[in-house]
Here is the input.
Amino acid sequence: MYVQKKERARNDHADENAREPYRVRLPRAIADEDVGLGDVLKRATSAIGIKPCGGCERRAAALNRWLVFSGGRLQ
Here is the structure.
């Protein structure tokens, strides 16, 4: 019971601190859809032959929450 309360409190605290990622606007000729920094790094490393692991997936998700390249207008 104590663990559930502690986990719930941690999740509530994370929601309060959640914010929108930074957005970098690119010309439409380069990107039409939103792409996170983690996805860009994942594509670049896999293109040179590095296979992603579990840590890479978590890192990519964290970077995607931090920075997004946007193809359209900023909102």
